Amino acid sequence: MKPLLGGCACREVRYECKEKPLVQFICHCRDCQHTSGGAFMAFVFVPRDRLTYLSGSLHHHDVRAESGRELRRQFCSACGSPISAFWPGAPMVELLTVASLDDQSIFTPTHELWMSRAEAWHPVHPDTVKLAEGPDEELVRGPVRTYFATRQA
Ligand SMILES: [Zn+2]
Ligand SMILES: [Zn+2]
After folding, report:
1. How many domains does the chain have?
2. Are 73 and 29 in contact (CB under 8 A)?
3. pLDDT digit string (tens) for 125-146?
4. Measured on CA atoms in the order 94, 95, 101, 107, is the torsion positive or negative?
5. Nearest ligand, measured from the Cα of 28
6. Ligand 1 mean position to 84 CA, how many Å?
7. Counting CB atoms within 10 angstroms of each CB, which of 20, 55, 81, 112 has the fewest?
């Protein structure tokens, strides 16, 4: 496969991921609204050990997600663009913001999360499963576990 390439608005941060996304979500939680400055965030989950940051530097802040787990949100230290996030307690996968991808057309979300927090003024995707709150753990862990159990070295 072609690597996933992406980075920030000022182009100091660049990354490359040598795996296709495992999970693809849209999240309407308050924290994603704050972080994005918009109505929601769109993410693809990739295996962290196939993701390489090529340039630039990331700052981060840690938040207690509504799931109760700590999430580290990373952004470009120069321009502040949100780039990625991961759970320090479960660091096998990293979430890349779809906005940071060079080719956003690869994004095919399956679920929208935290519809209970969604802005009334923003339309939703026609083809996603809508969840009032966060996902069942298995919705994320299932595909991640399957990937790590079956992938080729
Ligand atoms: Zn930047
Ligand atoms: Zn969220």
Report:
1. 1
2. no
3. 999 999 999 988 888 889 999 9
4. positive
5. 2
6. 13
7. 55
- Residues less than 5 Å from ion ligand 2, measured at CB: 27, 29, 32
Q: Strand 23-27 vs strand 111-113: parallel, antiparallel, or unpaired? A: parallel
Q: How far from 106 is each of 43, 62, 89, CA to CA, in Å?
A: 11, 28, 28
CB hemisphere CA count around 80 (13 angstroms): 4
**Runs of H (alpha helix) within 3-136:** 30-36
Per the CB < 8 A criterion, the answer to whether 93 and 47 are in contact is yes
CATH number where 84 lies: 3.90.1590.10
Which comes out higher in pLDDT, residue 22 or 67? Answer: 22
Whether the model clears a pTM of 0.70, i.e. scores above it, the answer is: yes
H or E element, residue 132: none
Widest Cα–Cα separation across the chain: 46
Confidence check: pLDDT of 67 > 80: no
Rounded to whole angstroms, the Cα distance separating 93 from 120 reads 31
Average pLDDT over residues 49-71: 92
Instruction: State the residue range of the domain holding 116.
Output: 4-150
Higher confidence at residue 66 or residue 41?
A: 41
